[in-house]
């Protein structure tokens, strides 16, 4: 008997297979309506100059580049540092564990904004990193160096938590099996536990990357010319605050929404994989 | 009392109830039996509106349960249901479990509700448990409280969805005995169960459901006729 | 040896262990800190005596921080509850809208939302200061509270939603079967059970709010960070490091006890929520 797709006749309209198209259209339509209404109401007391604002997009793009650069580099450094701290927190040495815990708890209870101030206007003034920066061949300038340092050190605390949870989520039986085969603790960690842990933490790490991008917005205080500073400068200079800040928001959404969607997909895929 | 006419239900593309016709008279005890997945629980849940039907009609004491303009909350006040997993409210004491609906839904005064609740607790033999939380009761005790909770609303019909399936064997009897007492008091009951002994002793009629269709509906004697040899008697023998 | 004696021995043993551990840790930290400090002090002239004299002036800022966080906490809970109910609504389109709100806000930096609201919407809407019962709230406080509320509400909504979904659906069935309306069932049956699941991550959110409030200094709200920054501006640059460190110390003073509270609650009530973690970051 030929296979025919099960009839969708008795499924509620909005939950049928192709219905998502209708939903998307409806949401877009509703949003357009709401935003249009908002725009109309606001223009009574504020003159919008969108065309003028759009002229400045190239500046935004430069800022975007710097945001991406800072976030990615800080992300990589943060992952390495975070892994080290996670391993410290899981080590058999009590003091190492305590130091790690102290590190994490400190950075989780201080606003990043304040930390950036401490790093740049504190350490930045106290320590001269020019030789270090020159040694790196000029790919970063002093400001960017401190920016990335601040981001990496701060986020390493959260990344270490992610790694720690990921490592702990690997069943203890795996470690038992590895050790029973004669592997040392380090070998077990390296060949058996960490690879599995990495698989588990990827969705959370993507979420961490999103958080990094959001945190990079605060780097404007040290005059790093990333997205937010661009917007602030333009707004101060030209006076079209609303347009510029809205464009700023859209730029961030362009960065973060795909990452969020990717993370979501990854989570789904990984949980499906585990089903066998 | 209950009139079910030509009820069809689909779960997505799965046809789970295929044209059910059934009626239950006042004071009658109807027992629904059948293999897992036959649709018997679904059918029961259609009676108080927990499950929606796609075609047909379910009328309970003159109220069309599945019609969209019916005030389902009002109708549910007159239909009691007891679940397989008891579903007592864990954050409330036994007494509060029994009184909350009469007070908040029916608008009964707290004193009156309290009185009714204590009477019911005495009836089920647990008046001392009034201030106790459900997690401190055994399964059988919880289920009896669940029955008391349903009775507190003074329903016209009582529905039972496999009330003893989640109980340890030694506690099944106390629940079935209580249900038997209710039957003697002429309560209209629709019971989904695997307990053939109960069905044999208490039911006025039995309905065998398989694959979403009522295969047979007759008196318990006919059901358990020793000389029959068909799907139904095989099932009955398997379960007993 | 009596049973009581054994207990006492165990207690002594444990506290001795603990104090040994703490003292070794302190020694290490002290050594590290001393080295770091000496290194820094070579190129930076620390003047703690002068800086610490200003410390009490931070207190009005501290009060403002707590005020704005408290307002936002209440607002975010109420609004978050509404959005959570929207996310769970049987109408697909309401679900979609609520989902859109949550996903958009969570993927934006707080500062951007703040900028759009304060420098954009404020001019458009024309809401400046609010006077209630004779007490005037300035624009930064009004808009700061609104922004913080709306931002954190998206996190609260997810936590509340998770809490509600953690209550088994049979509870809702049982409640509805007795004739309760959806709202009655929510109020008497579902939400009381959901609260145990909701509270631990919510403390995380509150910590996040306190940290987030630091950004409100940019719109001129005289909270902790702004007070600190304003304090040394007239005094002279060289104190920045000390001032900022003291500032960090204040935040630690507020947030560390709160995070201990959060951990204790998680232990007692038993849940660990990723959403709570995210929100506790306070971006």
CATH topology type of chain A:
MetI-like fold
Indicate the proportion of strand residues of chain C: under 5%
Counting copies of identical and different chains, the oligomeric state is heterotrimer
**Count of helical regions of chain C:** 11
What is the SS-derived class of chain C?
mainly alpha
Identify low-pLDDT runs of chain A: none
Radius of gyration of chain C: 24 Å
Number of helices of chain A: 11
Gyration radius from CA atoms of chain A, angstroms: 24 Å
Number of distinct beta strands of chain C: 2
Structure explained in plain terms:
- The complex is a heterotrimer of chains A (276), B (240) and C (283).
- Chain A is mostly helical and 276 residues long.
- Chain A has one domain (62-275): MetI-like (MetI-like fold, Orthogonal Bundle), CATH 1.10.3720.
- Chain A has eleven helices and no strands.
- Chain A has helices at 20-42, 50-54, 57-89, 94-108, 112-126, 130-135, 142-169, 172-180, 185-216, 227-238, 241-273.
- In chain A, 34% of the residues are buried.
- The mean pLDDT of chain A is 83.
- Chain B has 240 residues and is α/β, with parallel strands linked by helices.
- The model of chain B has no long low-confidence stretch (mean pLDDT 89).
- In chain B, helix 3 crosses helix 4 (110-123), helix 3 runs parallel beside helix 5 and helix 5 runs parallel beside helix 6.
- In chain B, the strands form two sheets. Chain B has a six-stranded mixed β-sheet with strand order 6-7-8-3-9-10, sandwiched between helices.
- Chain B has helices spanning 40-47, 72-76, 94-106, 110-123, 139-151, 169-184, 196-202, 220-223, 231-239; strands spanning 2-11, 14-24, 29-33, 55-60, 63-64, 79-82, 157-161, 188-192, 205-210, 213-218.
- Helix content of chain B is 37%, strand content 25%.
- Chain C has two domains: 1-34; 50-280, Orthogonal Bundle (MetI-like fold), CATH 1.10.3720.10.
- Chain C has helices at residues 3-43, 48-52, 58-87, 92-106, 110-125, 139-166, 169-177, 182-212, 224-235, 240-269, 274-281; strands at 130-132, 135-137.
- In chain C, strand 1 (130-132) and strand 2 form a beta hairpin.
- In chain C, helix 7 (169-177) runs antiparallel to helix 8.
- The termini of chain C are far apart.
- Chains in contact: A-B, A-C, B-C.
- Chains A and C meet through helix 1, helix 4, helix 5, helix 9 and helix 10 of A and helix 1, helix 4, helix 5, helix 8 and helix 10 of C.
């Amino acid at each position: 008997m030929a296979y025919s797709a099960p009839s969708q006749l008795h499924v509620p309209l909005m939950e049928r297979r192709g219905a998502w198209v209708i939903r998307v259209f409806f949401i877009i339509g509703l949003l357009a309506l709401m935003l249009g209404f908002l725009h109309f109401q606001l223009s009574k007391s504020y003159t919008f100059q969108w065309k003028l604002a759009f002229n400045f997009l190239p500046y935004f793009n430069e800022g975007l580049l710097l945001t991406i650069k800072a976030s990615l580099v800080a992300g990589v450094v943060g992952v390495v540092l975070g892994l080290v701290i996670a391993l410290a927190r899981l080590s058999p040495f009590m003091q190492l564990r305590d130091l790690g815990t102290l590190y994490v708890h400190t950075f989780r209870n201080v606003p990043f904004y304040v930390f950036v101030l401490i790093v740049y206007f504190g350490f930045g003034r106290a320590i001269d990193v020019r030789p270090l920066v020159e040694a790196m061949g000029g790919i970063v300038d002093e400001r960017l160096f401190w920016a990335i340092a601040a981001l990496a050190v701060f986020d390493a605390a959260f990344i270490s938590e992610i790694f720690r949870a990921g490592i702990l989520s690997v069943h203890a039986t795996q470690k038992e099996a590895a050790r029973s085969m004669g592997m040392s603790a380090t070998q077990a960690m390296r060949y058996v536990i960490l690879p599995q842990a990495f698989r588990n933490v990827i969705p959370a790490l993507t979420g961490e990357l999103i958080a990094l991008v959001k945190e990079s917005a605060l780097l404007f205080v040290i005059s790093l010319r990333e997205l937010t500073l661009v917007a602030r400068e333009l707004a101060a200079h030209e006076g079209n605050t609303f347009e510029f800040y809205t464009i700023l928001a859209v730029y961030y959404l362009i960065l973060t929404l795909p990452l969020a969607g990717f993370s979501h997909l990854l989570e789904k895929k990984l949980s499906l994989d585990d089903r066998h | 009392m209950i009139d079910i006419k030509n009820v069809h239900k689909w779960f997505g593309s799965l046809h789970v109830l295929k044209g059910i016709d059934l009626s239950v008279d006042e004071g009658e005890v109807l027992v629904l039996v059948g293999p897992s997945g036959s649709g018997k629980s679904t059918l029961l849940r259609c009676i108080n509106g927990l499950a929606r039907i796609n075609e047909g009609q379910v009328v309970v004491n003159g109220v069309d349960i599945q019609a969209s303009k019916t005030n389902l909350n009002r109708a549910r006040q007159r239909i009691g249901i007891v679940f397989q997993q008891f579903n007592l409210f864990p954050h409330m004491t036994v007494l509060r479990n029994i009184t909350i609906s009469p007070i908040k839904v029916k608008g009964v005064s707290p004193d009156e509700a309290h009185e009714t609740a204590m009477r019911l607790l005495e009836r089920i033999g647990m008046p001392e448990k009034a201030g106790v939380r459900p997690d401190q009761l055994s399964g059988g005790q919880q289920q009896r409280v669940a029955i008391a909770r349903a009775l507190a609303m003074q329903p016209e019909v009582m529905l039972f969805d496999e009330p003893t399936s989640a109980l340890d064997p030694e506690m099944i009897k106390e629940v079935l005995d209580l249900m038997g007492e209710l039957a003697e008091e002429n309560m209209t009951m629709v019971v989904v169960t695997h307990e053939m002994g109960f069905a044999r002793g208490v039911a006025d009629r039995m309905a065998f459901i398989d694959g979403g269709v009522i295969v047979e509906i007759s008196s318990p004697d006919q059901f358990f006729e020793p000389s029959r040899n068909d799907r139904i008697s095989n099932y009955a023998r398997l379960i007993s | 040896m009596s049973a009581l004696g054994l207990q006492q021995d165990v207690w002594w043993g444990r506290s001795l262990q603990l104090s040994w551990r703490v003292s070794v840790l302190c020694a290490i930290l002290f050594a590290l800190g001393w080295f770091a400090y000496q290194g820094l002090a070579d190129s930076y002239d620390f003047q703690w005596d002068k800086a610490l004299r200003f410390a009490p002036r931070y207190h009005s800022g501290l009060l403002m921080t707590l005020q704005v966080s408290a307002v936002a906490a209440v607002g975010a809970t109420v609004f978050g509850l509404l959005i959570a109910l929207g996310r769970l609504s049987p109408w697909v389109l309401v679900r979609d809208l609520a989902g859109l709100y949550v996903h958009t806000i969570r993927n934006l930096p707080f500062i951007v939302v703040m900028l759009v609201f304060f420098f954009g919407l404020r001019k458009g809407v024309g809401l400046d200061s609010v006077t209630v019962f004779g007490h005037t709230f300035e624009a930064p406080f009004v808009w700061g509270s609104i922004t913080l509320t709306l931002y954190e509400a998206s996190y609260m909504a997810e936590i509340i939603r998770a809490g509600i979904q953690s209550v088994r659906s049979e509870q809702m069935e049982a409640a509805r079967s007795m004739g309760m309306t959806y709202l009655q069932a929510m109020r008497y049956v579902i939400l009381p059970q959901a609260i145990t699941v909701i509270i631990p991550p919510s403390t995380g959110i509150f910590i996040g709010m306190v940290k987030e409030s630091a950004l409100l200094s940019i719109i001129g709200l005289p909270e902790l960070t702004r007070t600190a920054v304003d304090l040394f501006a007239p005094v002279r640059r060289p104190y920045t490091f000390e001032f900022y460190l003291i500032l960090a110390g204040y935040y630690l003073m507020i947030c560390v006890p709160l995070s201990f509270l959060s951990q204790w609650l998680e232990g007692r009530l038993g849940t660990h929520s990723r959403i709570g973690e995210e929100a506790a970051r306070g971006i």
